[in-house]
């Protein structure tokens, strides 16, 4: 993500420095979007704006929105020629109907998927396209399981702390169809994703993206939980000095009927 998240208080510098893989992988999704000169496109959950800028470079009239004011501030600094606004995927309006809505690594933060889909639908022209990638069923399952068991070991019920929605293709396609989209492309694929910063990679990832699991814990408890997670996951997700997160992505292209 880019990040329309439960929290709107992201550390945008940390995100840019240590989690650049988020938009680097998003470049493949841009090929699927195939933006054309003059098209009006929204980058939904634009983060610090790197992919928004690529869409602009293709000659499209693009704007970015993100839930986190810190991300929007940084995006405006990075690319002052592009319009960036704070906005909520579940409830945004556009001035004129769009040719396309693009969204990379954001929609798994939207437990209210129906509201996000309704907003996307109303923002598009008939025939307009929605091109998105996000975490699908089974995404980061090993990490979630390790976090839940580390928390349960200190008597903290963890299930309610999970901030994500990782649907199957069938679930998400059904929601889209119910709201007037035609699905023309959908795939679920695994993408083990290398994390930056060597041995510290998993701890950094948890602190950046999974901090809701640490809510209410003392500093000592947080360290204890992260250590337990690392220990649990090291045999499977840490090789030759690099952590790999067990990502599974959905990629989807849908057309507004
Ligand atoms: C993802 O991009 O799949 C993702 C990112 C952060 C937390 C969970 C999933």
Task: Tell me what the structure shows.
The chain is of the alpha/beta class. It has a domain at 12-139 and 164-196 and 244-256: 3-Layer(aba) Sandwich (Rossmann fold). The protein is built from nine helices and eight strands. The protein has helices spanning 12-18, 21-33, 50-57, 69-78, 113-123, 141-153, 169-178, 201-209, 219-237, and strands spanning 40-44, 61-66, 83-86, 98-104, 124-135, 181-194, 238-239, 242-256. Strand 1, helix 3 (50-57) and strand 2 (61-66) form a beta-alpha-beta unit. The longest helix is centred in the C-terminal third of the chain and has 19 residues, at 219-237. The two termini are 27 Å apart. Residues 1-6 have low confidence and may be disordered. The structure holds benzoic acid (BEZ). Residues 105, 108, 135, 139-140, 164, 209, 247 line the site of benzoic acid.
